[in-house]
Amino acid sequence: MRQVVAEIERFAKYIPEPKPRVLLATGAQKAKGQAKELAGGVDIVVATPGRLQELVQSGALSMLKVRFFVLDEADALLREKGDRDVVMTTYRLIPKATTRLQVLLFSATLHAPIIREMAEQLTSFATWIDLKGRDSVPDTVHHAVVRIDPKVMRVDPSKRGITTDGVHAKDNVRPGQRTPEALSETIKKLKGQVLLQVIEANAMDQAMIFCRTRVDCDNVEAFLRGASTAAGAQYACAVLHAGKGDRAGALEQFKSGEVRFLICTDVAAR
Question: What is the spatial distance between Cα 266 and Cα 212, in angstroms, rounded to a whole number?
Fold first, then answer.
């Protein structure tokens, strides 16, 4: 989000005075200061769904004069039901009968069903601008899916396991249980085990490993480093996500072959 604000400010120097006033509204800063800035007048608000909802509900941010409604990284934004609900609620607050509203959705996965569904709800006569095409995957790339079934597969207790994200830490999960929480935790643990099997079965020299969250990335990194023997680092890896300082260094390590695996979130990989 800071990158979006930085880009706006970079291009704003080409706009005649008065320059657009931009507000970055996230949970990292106090809402009171953001409300004060809104009261003084703002042209562009870049916000997270949670903080946007808070500012609207408190009356600090009015949607009555909104002319542009932009969803950046729309696929990730709409994946979570809570965020999706905020988007739709906010959209309904914008008057459309008397003024023209321009809606824009940006996504790296333009043809995802959720993007097309949301476009149908938010736009009329939408224009699709596709920079890469639906069939952009080369013929030399092959896809395979490994199904992890916690009811059939078992975690090998003799091997070092992967640390999970702790979502079920308070669910009193125990081995052998068949509750939804226990099965979910088993899947998380099996993923590390299966990852090593896939690497070895395909004799991978190098690979990029995508994870849903930064925590998952860090856990996979620790797991692979722990799986390496004392004699060598056959699972040498580096992590690429927004929480890591030296992202350029991680990329260079992967490109040079210093590490075999680059572990990253979807957004960082793009």
Answer: 7
pLDDT in tens, 183-232: 999 999 999 999 999 999 999 999 999 998 889 999 999 999 888 765 55
* Amino acid, res. 58: S
- Per-residue pLDDT tens digits for 51-92: 999 999 999 999 999 999 999 988 888 888 888 999 999 999
DSSP state, 47?
E
Q: Please check whether residue 150 is in contact with residue 187, taking contact to mean a CB–CB distance below 8 angstroms.
A: yes
Q: Token digits for 44?
A: 């562009």
> Residue 61 and residue 42: Cα distance in Å, rounded?
10
Q: What is the dihedral of CA 133, 136, 139, 142, to 10 degrees?
A: -120
- Here the tokens at position 84 are 């999706």
C-alpha distances in Å from residue 22, one per residue of 19, 87, 209, 215, 236: 9, 20, 36, 31, 43
Which residue reads 């959209």 in tokens? 91
Length of the chain: 270
How much is the pLDDT for 232? Answer: 55
Cβ–Cβ < 8 Å for 107, 78: no
Single pTM value for the model:
0.58
